[in-house]
Amino acid sequence: MAKKRLGVPRVPEGPQREFFLMMQRLVVLVGDPSLRELAKKLTMQKRALHLALVGPDIPDRHKTAHICDQLSKIASALDPPFDTTELRRDILLKWADAVTDQRTLGLTQAEAKPPSGTGQRSGDKRREFAQELKAAKARVGLPTRMLAKQSGVPVGTLAGWLAGNALPMEAWDFDRLLNVLDVPKEQKQKMRDLYVAARDERLRPTANTSARDEFTTRLGQLYEKAGRPSPVSLGRETGIRASTIATWMDPNNPNPRIPRSEQDFRAVVNVLVRRVGLHPMSDVAQEIMVLRHAAAQSLPTLQ
């Protein structure tokens, strides 16, 4: 019986489709096994793996890296072995482009819709995430302070997550917490999916919040966490003029400009996220880039 094909990615032309085609190419390089066989090797559900390879939703970075890492191990064990290091790197870079493209399309569609008095309220997914976290905590019976100590999460931060007032900066920020809570594998994935949904919900502009306001707020938060480095110090590290950087994030400027150059702005964001202990390809960095694009699109012309 012929093996069932994965099929054409169910996404628009552009970065999203390119991402899924690169993922499928990695599958072909390891021998093009059946989906059932591949899911067994990767210890994933067949449907979840199929969606990660054809869409329409871009898998989160944790799942993408897991699939790439496992396929790379299989490729290295072939005779002759395949070195997929470069393809893995390219896939993770393309993942960022695909996520940016998908979220930007979503933001554009959200802004086009008129305000409505019905439908899901802002913050519902964040509260649902908090409820799942509290339920997992209740199952083990650990007090918040003890749980914070064992997981390495600051007690105030943990309290904010449990109350539904805040979200982890990264999906892997709460992985240690889930390990301490001994959350089953399937439940872990559900909570990661809830986290992604809550984060995306936070990114959607509301009737009272413009894309520009969302961008300046999130950039301001990152700038504060990074210790408010001076534009001069950021300029030295990036090679970008301090006067230009100051127009983007000067706390005394009531009307900051939207960065014109995505490349220059990414260089500054990379410095900021490193200062808070994150990777330049982290979700936080990608969110800021998505919001910059949405804010720029909302203006008649780039400033």
Description:
The longest helix is centred in the first third of the chain and has 28 residues, at 85-112. 64% of the residues lie in helices and 0% in strands. It has helices spanning 15-29, 35-42, 46-54, 61-76, 85-112, 124-140, 144-151, 155-163, 175-180, 185-203, 211-225, 231-238, 242-249, 262-275, 283-297. The chain has three domains: 15-112, no CATH class; 124-203, lambda repressor-like DNA-binding domains (434 Repressor (Amino-terminal Domain)); 211-297, no CATH class. The protein has 303 residues and is an all-alpha fold. It contains 15 helices and no strands.
Which features would summarize this protein structure in a list?
about 300 residues; mainly alpha; 434 Repressor (Amino-terminal Domain); 15 helices
